[in-house]
Amino acid sequence: MTDDDRLTTSFPLAAYAFESSPLSAARTAEFRDYLPYNQGNRTLIAEEDGTTLAAVSAIPMRQNLRGVVLPMAGVAGVATHPLARRQGHVRTLLHQLLDEMRDEGHPLSALYPFRPSFYARFGYAGLPKPRRVTFAPANLAALLRVDLPGEVGWERVAAGYPAWRAFTERNLQERHGFAIFPDHRAVGMRDRDEYWLLTARVGGEVTGAVTYRIDEHGGTLHGNELLATDPLARALLLQFFARHVDQIERITVQVPPDELPELWLTDLDVHVEARTAVPGSSAPMARLLSLDALSGLPAGPGRVRIELTGDRWLAGTHLLDGTTGVLELVDDTTGRAPTATLTAAGLSALAYGVLDPAELPLRGLGEVSVDAATELRGLFPRRVPYLFADF
Ligand SMILES: CC(C)(COP(=O)(O)OP(=O)(O)OC[C@H]1O[C@@H](n2cnc3c(N)ncnc32)[C@H](O)[C@@H]1OP(=O)(O)O)[C@@H](O)C(=O)NCCC(=O)NCCS
């Protein structure tokens, strides 16, 4: 599908799947406004006699995998007509979509599942969910008395969009798991202009940022993702929030899954939450679509022969060698027996750093000998990925 075709094919199906319905005429009229943000996406549909039976889309994104930024296919808008479900349409479309995205150079893919087990069968592994942190501004009082060597910038997000976009780009380069939209989709944030943008700056350079809105006097400051490259940046952002003590009752903000807000300040009463539930509240998932993603990654010491099984995109026997500090992959033709057999989700979970090799057999993601587990643990040390982009 391209451009205007989406208005009558994939958009109505996605609206039925994800919105309150039936739609009003006014809501349907708004579809046209979304076209520019979908222009660079790949959308496939299954059609019969002019009726759209199912649709899937991929957003061409980029993601950091253990320090290396790679093209990533963000899967979105997966929906089947209510009369055409359970007939294999999404399976067929997803296979073709990922074939195409992989062939065009996307070795990674990520998505937010309605039900993780559905996508586990397509080789995706679960990633951690970011935390939502809630606290009262009075709790930040100690920060008001501190003289911090930096400043904050405060503006509407439309005005600050170039700084925001540049800072997310910096996080993409520096943070494992971090993924950002292509320009055509990212500018939606600027165009909707629904948030304030707060930035922390040190020596003129942006080191922290958060977008937020306030619902009412005496209400809540609703923050989106709080991004900080160091503790000073975070303190500058929180100090600004502290000045809202007589304006709002509470502050809520999203933080990366490895953040520990209870350690931010002494006497901080804080509630930290990550909740997952089918179908509305999911943690993200990701997978490798191609072993090219692994070649050249920084790796710990380890050397292991693995066989990949049960997947459309990852197969064969390979020698993984990290003895030089950089992961090398050799197609193994020696005929020697592999010491680990991994599913695509199993290898993806190791690459993203979310599971220990010893967990894979327990989760049905592979057979891993004790020796192989030691080597794989060396090659793929645990990491906490932070996906960031929400789609
Ligand atoms: C969920 C949905 C996208 C599935 O599409 P579909 O075209 O019915 O799926 P398919 O028929 O291709 O199913 C593929 C496989 O998953 C299984 N499956 C389908 N729906 C499933 C579900 N809800 N839970 C678990 N497995 C499911 C099918 O049985 C099939 O298994 P098989 O490969 O062994 O035959 C569709 O039902 C839908 O649009 N639901 C509402 C919107 C939604 O939740 N979208 C998901 C957004 S991420």
TrEMBL record:
Organism: Micromonospora trifolii
GO molecular function: acyltransferase activity
Record's keyword terms, sorted: Acyltransferase, Transferase
Pfam families reported for this sequence: Acetyltransf_17, Acetyltransf_9
Phylogenetic placement of the source organism: Bacteria, Bacillati, Actinomycetota, Actinomycetes, Micromonosporales
Domain N-acetyltransferase, residue spans: 2-149
EC number: 2.3.1.-
Keyword Nucleotide-binding found: no
Name recorded for this polypeptide: GNAT family N-acetyltransferase
Superkingdom in the source lineage: Bacteria
